[in-house]
């Protein structure tokens, strides 16, 4: 599933910033214009079989395509290994499935948004805004099945809270934080808070820690200056996933160190 989704994400990353439909026209070689045959569109394997070149004109095919497919497969597997047990761990399987689907969806758009932000310094509304509907519906359905409406209310607080923090930063430091970051913060705040206050706190803090560290490294090596534009979306997403996977453990250790655990 991850391989197939990764193949589609390659289309999304290429076409969405250009304002092209992800459905039509069919994928074609940018060099010769020949439509890609079905048997040349098998994730990873086709690229290997073609030795990274178009079958018709022998133009090179970027290694990023199979890398995205393989990375998405690995990331989907990690999500499944970590969260599939929640489906059968004492709760409703339907509720656990809703959570799993929400996280797989978030992982898919995380890959697409990170690559698009790196390429264009944009987080397109066409991906971010529908994510609100998807995560609210999936996690709302999970709460309806399990009866855990506390998690859903907490998620709403996370959406408003993290979105407000980013909005204040965007208004206080013009040019330092884009409105795309603000919109994405609401989605991430909703999912993180649904999982708990610990994941929200860790995920929110980790974004600034990771992004700040990366910026300092670039400046110390002379590859960026104080006014250089560095996409923050990938660090928001990386921080959020750190909160999702390790938030409860890190938060418990932090409270324990303060004598509050």
Chain-wise SSE layout:
Elements: H1 2-15, H2 45-49, H3 64-83, H4 85-88, H5 93-120, H6 125-146, H7 149-172, H8 179-195, H9 197-220, H10 233-257
Helix pairs in contact: 1-3, 1-5, 3-5, 5-6, 5-10, 6-7, 6-8, 7-8, 8-9, 8-10, 9-10
By secondary-structure content and strand pairing, the structural class works out as mainly alpha
Q: How many structurally independent domains?
A: 2
Average pLDDT figure: 92
Number of strands: 0
| H-E string | HHHHHHHHHH
- State the helical fraction: over 70%
The number of helices is 10
Counting copies of identical and different chains, the oligomeric state is: single chain
Shape: globular
Strand content: under 5%
Fold and architecture overview:
- Helices cover 70% and strands 0% of the residues.
- The protein is mostly helical.
- It folds into two domains: 1-73, no CATH class; 84-257, no CATH class.
- Helix 5 packs antiparallel against helix 6.
- The two termini are 39 Å apart.
- The model has no long low-confidence stretch (mean pLDDT 92).
- It is a multi-pass membrane protein.
- This is Prepilin peptidase.
- Keywords: Cell membrane, Membrane, Transmembrane, Transmembrane helix.
- Residues 105-215 form the Prepilin type IV endopeptidase peptidase domain.
Name the descriptors:
2 domains, 10 helices, 261 residues, mainly alpha
Describe the structure concisely.
It is a multi-pass membrane protein. By secondary structure, the chain is mainly α.
